[in-house]
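Notes taken during the Thursday session

The instructor put the following on the board and asked us to keep it in front of us for the whole hour. The protein is DDE transposase. We were told not to look anything up and to reason only from what is written here. First, the residues (303 in total):
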Amino acid sequence: MIPEVGSLFELAELFPDEQSCRDHLRSIRWRDGESCPHCGGNKIYHFSDRETFKCGNCKKRFSIKVGTIFEDTKLPLRKWFMAIWLITNHPKGIASTTLAKDVDITQKSAWFVLQRLRYATVTKSFNAPLKGTVEADTTYIGGKEKNKHSKDRKGGTQGGAGKDVVLGILERDGELRAGHVEDTKGPTMREAIRENVEPGSALMTDEDRSFKGLGKDYRHQAVNHSAGEYVREQAHTNGIESVWALLKRQIVGVHHWVSSKHLDRYVQEMSWRFNRRDMRAGARMNDMFACVEGRLRYRELIA
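Then, after some discussion, the predicted structure tokens were revealed:
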């Protein structure tokens, strides 16, 4: 496991060469035992180069990077480790232009590296439902209509016209789940809430009519923002609204603009960091290494 790492300089000292990076990746990926990424067999032969292995079952050779986001990368693992330290330890993430300069790669490569790391942050298995007191809210991502070219304007000024919708569900003092959704219609909202929140929980929302009808499954309370009400005893959405402030500072202040196509990856990146906000730097890095299973090809990303 990585000890506490306070800077990129300390990280570089901890991993001075490619072999030290490969060894660390092996220690996490194979912490429960060695296995072949092709057939899942556990009869693994080691070679003297300490870089490649062979499966005793399917007879295929492979490296520790096969079957992960690092597969077929031409970049040194040391630069990947630096990128992981930067994306996991900067509260608002890092822009591809900044990463390109910091680790001496092209902006195109930096963008692909960051997208693969965002891919790793997406939860790939079922999570237990949120419970206790849960806040739910939506926010809109996108530029103002008046600032767009006339051909890009959707019309209207209310209800997030021309913008993308992000739904967030936050368990107080617990986990955040957020994602890009198609619309703010009642069926969309209610289905997402029911998929993620345990029945009987206390659900706090604003007065948006999209959340109506949830009182049958939850102890639903709503605050009326339009009437100037923001807190009524335990009824408020201050927690999830602080998440939106963080997300918008990330998008506006760091990335400046995010396409609808890739918006969900940026939301997942923010959520991943938020859910590990109490971890120390080394623990967050190790948690990212534990998520690297699965390959994302460039042609799939830009398709």
